[in-house]
Amino acid sequence: MLMKFKAIVIDIDGTITHRDRKLSLTAAAKLRALDIPVVIATGNVLCYAKATAKLVGVCCNIIAENGGVIIDGFDNDPIVSDVIHECEEAYEFLSSEFNMEKLDSVHRRTEIVLRSNFDVEKAREVLGTHFPNVEIIDTHFAIHIKSKKINKGTGLFKMAEMMGLETTDFVAIGDSINDLEMLQEAGFAVAVGNADDFLKDIADYVSEASYGDGTVEAIDYLISSGLI
Ligand SMILES: O=C(O)COP(=O)(O)O
Ligand SMILES: [Mg+2]
């Protein structure tokens, strides 16, 4: 008998949006119509993710800041990982050499996010092994200086526990490097057509279509195959 997955965990940028970050209305409608829980998992800050979840209509189990911030209800207090200090230190260390522009730092509580206008490879080299718990990742939407201790996979683990589910009960859908651990942790992994190759390589299903259309295609596939 086919395994019925019990929930979906899905990325925002590049997965339920168009290339330019505008929401895909067809993807939103598809997610809203599902009769299983849909968890939003994003590198964006919590308030951005909450508004997205509310407007899409899948409110409100949310993994924000790449797993650093988690809520299981719109009005509930977030669980916030204590990992910002080492990211701040790494940022200070790098900012003497690189001209870096912080994004939405007022709302961000667990990582530093930077506009994609500097040489990331070079920054990784300079960072070297000075901060063994810190990594720099590029989602194609922004650069994140984040703790290696958290990611969307660790976020999914916590969220599953809060929902009384296993991580393997989830279908995970994403497009880039910050979705990797979440796709590995989930029971079924979907990469949309615009996803990075390494994500497609580990996915159970890769949609032909890209961006929000890829999510619509993947959900149609999951329903028609009896997987959800
Ligand atoms: O925050 C980013 O860089 C990308 O956001 P996402 O995780 O929703 O794709
Ligand atoms: Mg994304």
UniProtKB/TrEMBL annotation:
Question: Catalytic center at which residues?
Answer: 11 (nucleophile)
Per its Swiss-Prot or TrEMBL entry, what cofactor is needed? Mg(2+)
Q: What does this protein do?
A: Catalyzes the dephosphorylation of 2-phosphoglycolate.
Q: Pfam family example for this protein? A: Hydrolase_3
Q: Which reaction is recorded as catalysed by this protein?
A: 2-phosphoglycolate + H2O = glycolate + phosphate
Q: Which organism is it from?
A: Methanolobus tindarius DSM 2278
User: Would the keyword Repeat be found if you checked this record's keyword annotation?
Assistant: no
Protein's recorded name: Phosphoglycolate phosphatase
Gene Ontology cellular component annotations, sorted alphabetically: cytosol
